[in-house]
Every structure is written in structure tokens, then in C-alpha cells.
Amino acid sequence: MHRTRLGALSSIIVAAFALSGCTAGATPADGSGKPGAGDAVALTPVASRPASPAVPSAPALDAATKTACAQVSKDIKAALAKAAKAEKIGPPAGYAAVSAQYSAGASAIYANVIGANAAVNGAARQVATAMGKLADIYATAPRIKPSRQDLEAALKNLTAACSGA
Prior knowledge:
- The protein is 66% helix and 0% strand.
- The protein is mainly α and 165 residues long.
- Helix 4 runs antiparallel to helix 5.
- It is elongated and about 45 Å long.
- The relative contact order is 0.14.
């Protein structure tokens, strides 16, 4: 069971890394592969800039990151609701279902965080890792209810990253 889950999560992670390396406009528009005169305009310094504020503001989230945050948040809520429902069944059968729900939630997070900025991607990875650890504990020790402290801390980090703080 662990090997199957690891294989599925590994393939999702590899896909995420492969897709996150793509950048638009990496080559010049003329297709020559060499910088042209149009590139020099972008490299000229600005002569005067307005004074920066004393307190740095949080960077604005791009559209892909906002979409990823919304989808990941939806996935987390669904996974936690399904895990809570399965937990009501009780050990050991219910805990096997809880393990499956946490694993599915972690996989959904990895799949839907593609395209998000580094802060959101890292925070979502922490949530997925915490969910995976809970899934492992529920699967290996079905009579012990594990602590959700790591998951709650990771959820706070994700909330902060998605708010741009």
C-alpha cells in the first residue's frame, strides 16, 4: 500500500516540477536565440523611482496562484470532511478509510498546486506531507488516533501563503 501511494505521489511531484520549469517568452520573438535591440530597452535602468514605502508590502498573487489556492483549499476541505466521516466508523475499519481519504487529499493537493508561486507550493507541500503522515499512522496503527498538530500548523502556513502575507 505504501509503495503504491509513494509511486502515485512521486509521479505527481515529477509532473509538477516539469510543468513549473516552463516559462513564457524564454526565447526572443525573432527566433534567433540571440538578444536583439528590443532586449536592450528592457535592460535600461529607470532614471527616477518613487520612494518606496517604509513597510514592504506583500507581493500580489498571480492568477495561477489564486486559482491553485482556491482549488487546494477546496480539496483540503473535502478531504478533511471525508476523513471525519470515515473516522466516525471507528477503528480499525474506519481508520483504514481515514488513511485512504488523507492519501487522496494529499494527491489532490499535489495535482492542483501546479502553477502556484513558490511560497504557496511549499506551504501546500507541507499540508500534503502532514496528510500523508496521518494516513501512514492511521494505516499502520489503526487503534491509535494520531495528533493533527502538524496538519493544523501546515494549514496555517498555507492560509498565510495564499493571503500573500
